[in-house]
Amino acid sequence: MSDPDQYNVGWICALQIEYVAARAFLERRHDPPERLSRNDNNHYTLGEIRGHQVVIAVLPDGEYGTSSAAGVARDMVHSFPNIRFGLMVGIGGGIPTKHDIRLGDIIVSSPQRGLGGLLQFDLGQELQGQGFHQTGFLNQPPTILRAAVTGLQTRYAEEGNQLKGSIGAVLEGNKRLKRKYAQPKTDRLYYSDFAHPDVERSCGEVCDRSKLIFRPKRTEEEDDPDIHYGLIASGNRVIKDATFRDQLAAERDVLCFEMEAAGLMNHFPCLVIRGVCDYADSHKSEEWQGWAAMAAAAYARDLLREIIPQQVQAERTAKEVLNGIQSQLDHVTTGVHELVSITSGSAQDINDLAQRIDLKALPIAAGAEFGTYMNQHEEECLPGTRKELLLDIQNWALSDQGKCIFWLNGSAGTGKSTISRTIAKAFQKQELLGASFFFKRGEGDRGNATRFVTTIIQQLAAKIPELRASIIQVVRDIPGISAKPLKEQFDELISKPLHSLHGAKIQTSYLVIVIDALDECDNDKDVAVIFELLLHVHKFSSPRLRFFITSRPELPIRLGFRTVCHHDLVLHEVPEPIIERDISMFLENKIVSIRHKQSLSSDWPGSVNIQTLIKMSVPLFIFAATICRLFEDYNLDRDECLMEILKYQNQESKLDKTYLPVLDRLVSRYSGTRQSQLVQKVREVLGTIILLENPLSVTSLSKLMGISMQSINASLNSLHSVLNIPNNKTLPVRLFHLSFRDFLLDSSTRDKTPFWIDKMEMNQKLADRCLSIMHQNLKKNICSLESYGTERSDIDLEYINFYVPPELQYACRYWIHHLADCESPISWRDNILTFLNEHFLHWVEVMSILGVVSEVLGSISTLQKVLHGGEGSEISEFLLDARRFILKNSQIADIAPLQIYASGLIFAPAMAVTRSKFERELPDWIERGPRVEETWSPELQTLEGHSDSVEVVTFSADGRLLASGSQDKTIKLWDPATGALKHTLEGHSGLVQSVAFSADGQLLASGSDDTTIKLWNPITSTLKHTLKVHTRAVQSVAFSADGRLLASGSHDTTINLLDPTTGVLTHKLLGRSGLVQSVAFSADGRLLASAFSDRTIKLWDPATGTLKHRLWGHSGLVQSVAFSADSQLLASGSQDKTIKLWDPATGALKHTLQGHSGLVQSVAFSADGRLLASGSSDTTIRIWDPTTGTIKHTLGSHSSWVRSVAFSADGRLLASGSSDTTIKLWDPATGAIKHTLRGHSGLVQSVAFSADGRRLASGSSDTTIKLWDPATGAIKHTLRGHSGLVQSVAFSADGRLLASISQAFVSSDRTIKLWDPATSALKHTGYMRISGSTDNTVKLWNPATGALKHTINIKSLVRNIELSKKLPHLITNLGALNIQAWHETFSSNPRETKTELSLHANRWIAVGGQKEVWLPPDYEAISLAVKDGTIAIGSTTGRITIPQDLRLPICWDYFEKRPFVGGADWLMDVMCDAEVVVSSQRMPSWVVISSSLVERGY
């Protein structure tokens, strides 16, 4: 036992994780103490570090905070009376605002600004908006510790710290600690205003990576971890508020938060050491706690090694100073009692805090709200200016008769945003400001409407506390609400919560929402949605919402305001004297300020000049603001600037007066060659800046342009009046006002200044620089990812920004944009082809990593358009092939970017250009790829998203939207060019049977089993009308060509004609003879066709509702009807498996088209009438020539019924919807699709190779087994004999027998059949050799004879059963069953399996558990077989794929089949060389066969 009197260093830990780390760094561990003070309940570890006798204590489990720390210290000193000083060592929350603090760094308390190194703040004072309240501070650490810190700091500065190595040595010595205490790979720091959206999920899953702050990796010369010395804040609450964190950093320069050290204040002589485990925000990083604790402990050990043990003995003991701790504890106890009293009366405050935490799940657009830090220097209206206008706005806001919306519009430079800021501030003071959103193009989330609703509702919730409960409920009920479409966000977060306040007493009756610069919202469709939402604001009565909106009078804005009731005011129509008065006040005020700051004479620049400047400014405030910025620039001569400006006083153009003086000033001091050189340099820099699609920093500009930062800075030095040029060279350079860009690009500017920018010439230079940057930097696996299956969401943003710097990101995204806008794109054809041949896939990889692979298709289309490659030219062939490659692989590229080299190339057609050009990029472990189609199939893309059968698909007239209706009760709107899902329309309570677009694309009608028709706005996804005019399911809807009529057919036997604008019923047509299956208008609107279940078609006059013709001829009910574009033909599809073509004018039958083997579900004509498509329950689509009735193509890729087909308006696309839950897009012109293997008419349930690899067997739901030649893909034999689904097949080891098991659950076939695979002869039919059943028995069978050998009775249900590799045992769910008594020798001797090959989620081939190859939709697997490096895949499409010699890094000696998802039956086969185990489950019975027993004749 150890003597407590010998210990002189106390080490206190708050958490168990810190205690483990501290113990790990003891150099020698001692025995427990021989005695302790009475009532000391601490747990101690005793040991030694460099001769120091150290005692380590930990706070009791579950206790933390100041009082607990004080109690531990008190008891420690009583039991160990000779302790001289203490170390408080553990983890804390770092504050990275002012210092480069990172996770795993170390914070050491150090005296700063008169404070001893640690300060305490009051409980609860971390709430947003409340001031920091300091309640105490820690005395300076003892001199001996401060001297040691200085010495260690000096040693680290000279040698660098070796802490990482020290930790590594500890972990190597105790490998049990590695999992929890090793250093994590990911360090994420988010912007302060971005809160973690979902506490149940990790940052990697739910946090917006664009909100990460980029920090370059530390270099080898920098310490990692780094040590920071300064103030540590200690309180009684874990800090999770980044705003409060940053406030404290700004005010007190605090480095870290923790919770215990304040308990030692002014009493225990100690030093506080904290390892940074998080950033004191909502994005907690618990995985860093172990490493941070290790880092702090490693530093503490190094610190003690700096102190000579004899020096410690000279220090005073801590026992005397701790006599005051009891009074401190009494004070804390009293404070706690007071706190209980306070919180009892302040439950609402606590609830408010909880609600604020929940609301942070709604992300906001940084800087969009009025009054944010980043916009604090933007100007407001000078007091006394804009008086009349501001008064008008004030009166409007408070008037009971005022309209809900006020639109302030004006041209560029008229001061709209300044007025917005002024009115927002005024409303804020009057407590009328509900919320604000200041749009700004090119400023991240402020440049679009992605976070418009969430930013508004965050502010409304702060203004109206009564809203919070409703909003929080939405956040909890709809995870990810912030990512939903704008309309859904508005409905759920604003509309419903506000309506819930009806009748509630709230503090204010009116609230104004300020929306500035709406014209700077990038997406016109988002602007249209916002106007759609504004239509409903008048419905809010408590409080009444008013919207103040500013914008330029651009066309989308003007069109939007035509739809809403509003009050407007046009700035450029304000009387000129008023504008002149206001500009005069502004200018004179600014000049007075300039005189004062720069010590100018009191009359500068002279009253006459001032009046001239005023006259020149009217009506543009931007002119006055720009010349004032010129005068404020210390680098410029003000008088020379003034003379330059006054030269333009007679110019008519206001922009000339504003910007020519700035530009002329640049060249006024130079002439000749020097002037020409200067103009060329500045023009190139200016041209680049104004034409960039996204602003770049000086650093990135330098790399993009290929010129030095010094040269760029020199060019920008005199442009601070028109450009916002940050001091930080990593921040982007921006225009103060877009009018400067307009001015420089205006053709009329060309003769006025040498700085005019030739837009085409500059775009050509930018395109060239982008290509150069990409040529130099693009390569395969640019981010050095570990696996082909690495998902984009798992790639840290810092890694992306490191490997793909901003200039390369810009080049990849915008090179084609600049190419398209240059003078002669076609001259670049050869250069572009060279680039694509070398780097196409590398470019696609980067676009995928950046999350913008959807932009690639549009970029390819642009290249096809601008390069004008003739048909058959090399560039045309490449781009056509590239488009097909992206359509096929964009989905997986967006998930796992490197799959373009794996899945993309492996499954590309043999003759594909992309494959041939980039075969070098295939994974190294592929010797030869699978047998694939020769060329691209007619199928362009598979759209996945519906959760049930797709019933109907249709294109909008312009081909820009595709609508699909499904049994999942939703309609989905897709972009057929990219395959992207645009909207999901929800509202029907039954399956959606039919959808139709109006000709102008402004309306979408849907008919459902719920008996309703719904009319939607497909642009905004809003529901316009719900029409209840039928009594049974609505089977079909159709618009007339002019959009004035909507026809609906129902199972109630009626057809209704409706006005889609009003929803009014105009005619009801009574069919009487059967259910209405389908309706269609002729293109000229003169006829309406309807299909009935009584096998007839009826033609109606929609104008009068009279019946024109009744068409007979089908022998089954008619499923679908469609007119040709010229109205000369009517097609009908029927359950009799035929399509009939009719003359609608006479009712005569023209042709009967036969070929389908199932009922015809849908028919559609191409727009030119030259093609007719039909979809059938036989899973195929057939394309016909309606003139001759001949089949042109049969498309057979669907795995279930084809429910609907539709052509795009230009006839280049055909869409099909199927019961397999997918939609497919086809090229109807190209025809046949090639499958790897065909033959089965049902699901492929099982595949197995013979041992010699010469045969492949497949079992199917069509009851057959097929034997294939894997080398050629040819069918060798078809084995017929089963009457039910063939569940599983397996060869014996010598290949002389093939066993098959039939489905025992849906038919009477419960047999095992043994076949001779050489002759296809049936050898035996019997029952399962080893089977577990619901009758609580296990039966053993002889597979050679089919005879029952033994029945083993079990007391419980046997569910799982397989042969042990160490026979004689069966492994069951009940344990191991010894079957030695029934069999003498079981010995299978399987070869050792080297690594596991597996199938994940039916879509990924994984090697050793790591995903490597994604299977495309056509190859979605239900079974996988591997033999001698060859893989076979059985899929739900009836296809068997044999990717020959798909060789992996190891030789695979087994195959396994994962569960097949087609039903309730689960299938698993495992082959281990000589032994084959085939098992099948239909809960709760199992079946197992072992070919080793077949061989031995058991």
State the gist of this model.
By secondary structure, this protein is an alpha+beta fold.
What does this structure look like?
This is Putative wd40 protein. It comes from Aspergillus saccharolyticus JOP 1030-1. The protein has 1498 residues and is an alpha+beta fold. It folds into six domains: 4-333, 3-Layer(aba) Sandwich (Rossmann fold); 362-571, P-loop containing nucleotide triphosphate hydrolases (Rossmann fold), CATH 3.40.50; 577-757, no CATH class; 762-923, no CATH class; 940-1226, YVTN repeat-like/Quinoprotein amine dehydrogenase (Methylamine Dehydrogenase, Chain H), CATH 2.130.10.10; 1244-1495, 7 Propeller (Methylamine Dehydrogenase, Chain H), CATH 2.130.10. 29% of the residues lie in helices and 25% in strands. It has 36 helices and 70 strands. Strands 57-56-55-70-69-68-67 form a seven-stranded antiparallel β-sheet. A five-stranded mixed barrel has the order 5-10-9-6-11, surrounded by four helices. Helix 17 runs parallel beside helix 18 (555-561), helix 25 (698-705) packs across helix 30 (806-820) and helix 31 (829-849) runs antiparallel to helix 32. The longest helix is centred in the middle third of the chain and has 23 residues, at 576-598.
